[in-house]
Amino acid sequence: MSRLSDLSGKGTAVWLDFVDRKFLESGGLKTLVEDDGITGVTSNPSIFEKAMGQGTAYDDSLAAYDRAHPEAPTIDRYEALAVQDIKAAADTLRPVYDRLDAKDGYVSLEVSPYISDDTDATIAEAAKLWSMVDKPNLMIKIPGTPAGAPAIAATIAAGINVNVTLLFGIEAYKAVALAHAAGLEKRVQEGKPIDRIASVASFFVSRIDSAIDAKIDALGTDEAAAIRGKVAIANAKMAYQWYLEFLKSDRWHALAAKGAMPQRLLWASTGTKDKAYPDTLYVDTLIGADTVNTMPPATMDAFRDHGTIAETLTADVDGARHVLAEAERLGLDLNGVTDRLVEEGVASFAKAFDDLLGAIAAKHPATA
């Protein structure tokens, strides 16, 4: 096993932030599971846009679907292709899911970014995608927007695993963590089991540094430069501190007594965007119990080669507090930045979805 597999010994599960038909069919995911201990896969509209919108890997499947459904709208054609990939990934990960008794082994599929501000539509689409894939190790990705929080609670209450995406700020994270608890509590009230319902809260990191570092560079002072590249990690560490405190609460203890699994923090956007930083920065610094790090293939390759293994997530918490205090003192407006990043993230996924649907529509009718 590789250095990646060693992360699990420190409590950090490794997920792959990538899905592609050729990769799945060639056994690429199976190899990562066997050689690197990978225990999950995430997808999003940008990933599917790159996979489906380029090349011919999906053409045969699309042609078969079009012959059976010649009048199907483009969105249905996309969902048919995506569901095939997600099912294949879920099947590859099913032995992991079974071995770990539902604690891991998940593949994530996102609701449409077009409905990020519509609670009812998000609830309905989560239920539809859950039914279409029909695999117990599926997670439905729901954005952590204000409209997303009640949708998360309802989806968890319906017995559906949830990956909360596009989290940047600690307050937004708290809201979805409490929504997760509320969904579990509703199931308990209804006499339904909660012991095999899994959830992760995907907390994005590198995009925060990209935005904050630009403000730091604009200030051009030595005291500002001293926290360059440190704000995202500090933000993540303080989110984890809140998670640890919540696990000590009476509210969580009551759910844990019923078999509830904690909603793990998942570190997303872990590819380093600033070439001045180590390419394993957002893995090396965020290793700790009950967490997930979802990595694009390049970051996975880098960590396998030269990543460091140490429990860093709970190290120097006071230092993290100092970094955030300095960011506030310098007027970097972290809250404003994280709010804007959510909006930009939704818009980016919507643009990728536009491009994806456009590419699929251009292949209609695919009757070859």
Distance between the termini: 43 Å
Nearest-angstrom radius of gyration? 20 Å
Beta-strand share of residues: 5-15%
| Helix proportion range | 55-70%
Provide a count of the helices. Answer: 17
Which regions have little confidence, pLDDT < 50, spanning 5+ residues? none
Structural class: alpha/beta
What's the CATH architecture name?
Alpha-Beta Barrel
Considering the chains and any ligands shown, give keywords for the structure:
single chain, 368 residues, alpha/beta, TIM Barrel, eight-stranded parallel barrel, 17 helices, 8 strands, 56% helix
Describe the structure.
The protein is of the alpha/beta class and about 375 residues long. It has one domain (about 5-205, about 230-310, about 345-360): Alpha-Beta Barrel (TIM Barrel). Helices cover about 55% and strands about 10% of the residues. It is built from 17 helices and 8 strands. Strands 1-2-3-4-5-6-7-8 form an 8-stranded parallel barrel, surrounded by 8 helices. Helix 14 links the parallel strand 7 (about 265-270) and strand 8 (about 290-295). Helix 6 crosses helix 17 and helix 10 packs across helix 17 (about 335-360). The protein starts with a helix and ends in a 6-residue tail after the last helix. The mean pLDDT is about 95.
Question: How is this structure best summarized?
Answer:
The chain is of the alpha/beta class. Helices cover 56% and strands 11% of the residues.
